[in-house]
Amino acid sequence: MRVLAEPLVALLIVLTAGLASCGGAGGYGGGGGNMPVAGVGPSKLFAADSTNKVVGSLANPDPAAGALTVDRLIGPQPPYFYNYAGFSTTLGSLALDATRDVLYVGTGTTVQVFYGASQANGDIFFSASIGPFGSTGSMFVDAVHDRLYVGDDAANVKVFNGASTVNGMPAPRLVTGATTPIHGVAVDTTARNILFVSNDTAGASTTHQIMVFDNADSVTTAAPNRTITPTASAVNLAVGGISLDAGNDRLYVAGGSGSSTVMVFNGASTANGPIAPDKTFSVFGSGIVSVVVDPPNDRLYAVGSNGHIYLVEAVGTLSSGAVTAKDASVSGGVLTAVAVSP
Length: 342
Prior knowledge:
Blueprint: E1 12-17, E2 45-49, E3 54-58, E4 66-69, E5 72-74, E6 93-97, E7 102-106, E8 111-115, E9 128-130, E10 136-142, E11 147-152, E12 157-161, E13 173-175, E14 182-188, E15 194-200, E16 208-214, E17 226-232, E18 235-236, E19 242-245, E20 250-254, E21 262-266, E22 273-275, E23 279-282, E24 288-294, E25 299-304, E26 309-312, E27 321-322, E28 326-328, E29 335-340
Parallel strand pairs: 17-22, 23-27
Antiparallel strand pairs: 1-4, 1-28, 2-3, 2-29, 3-5, 6-7, 7-8, 8-9, 10-11, 11-12, 12-13, 14-15, 15-16, 16-17, 17-18, 19-20, 20-21, 21-23, 24-25, 25-26, 26-28
C-alpha cells in the first residue's frame, strides 16, 4: 500500500483484502482554509495520523478493495504547515458526535473540537479546545446526552456535560475508582446506563481488566460494581481500548500492543470476575491497541500498533479464530485512532 501526493486532498490509502504489508512513498498535499470538496458526500470515517499531525476522512466508511483518495484532510499541509488545528504527534484518540456533527480529537494534553466535522477540510482552526489533561488516551462521546468521557491515562475518567459547547477546562465530573493506566472507555447509553473502563492495576502484580460502573451518568468516587478480568487457561489477558455494541450487550476488547487479537464478551452488562472471552479474533498482523465497532453496519475497525487500521465485515457473525480484514496504512505516517459515523 502507498500514498501518492496530489494537488489538494492528497492522502491516498490503499485497502486490500487480507493482511498484506504496506510500502511505497508519497505524502500530503494541499493546504488553505476550510475548502469545500465538490461532488463528495459528508465524511463518515475519520482516522488520525500522528506522524503528520492530521486527521483524514472518507465519505464512504466501507471502501472497496483498491486505491482511494481521502476526501478531506484536517491539519497542517504544504506549503505552509501552520497547524491552526493545534494537532500534535500524539493524536491518540478520536470521538465523533454524528448527531451534532462534532469531532473530538485527543492530542495528548488537549481535546481539540471541530464543528461541521463531516465537511471540515484544510489547515483550519479548531472550534474549541478542552484541557489540559495528563494524557487523552481514550474518549467516548454520548451523543444522546451531549456528554464526553475522557480516559485520562494519568488520572481518572473525566466527564463533561454539554460537551459540544465546552471550551477551556471547566471542572469535570471525576470517576476516580478506575485505576491507571486507562486504555479505553465506553458507555452503554441505553437504560442500562453503564460505564466500562479498560485499565491495569499497579503494584507488585499487574492485573488487566475492564471495570464496570453502574449509573454512568452520575458515578464519581464509587468503586466499580463489577470487574471483568479476561482470563484463558488461568492466564490474565492484556487489554487495550474497548468498544460497545449496546444493542447486543456485547463488548469488544483490543488485546493491546503485545497481542494481535480482539476479544468479545457477550452479556457485557452482567459479566463479572475472571472469565474467558466468548470469542477471540486473531491474525491482524499487529498488536491491536484500540477498536471501534459500528453496530448498524456490523463492522469493526481495529487500530494496530504498527500504524495500520484493520476493517472487519459482518463481525457479529464471525466465529473465534483468524479473520479476514481490509488493511489501511499510510506510507510515512502512523494511524493511531479511528472514529466512524453509522
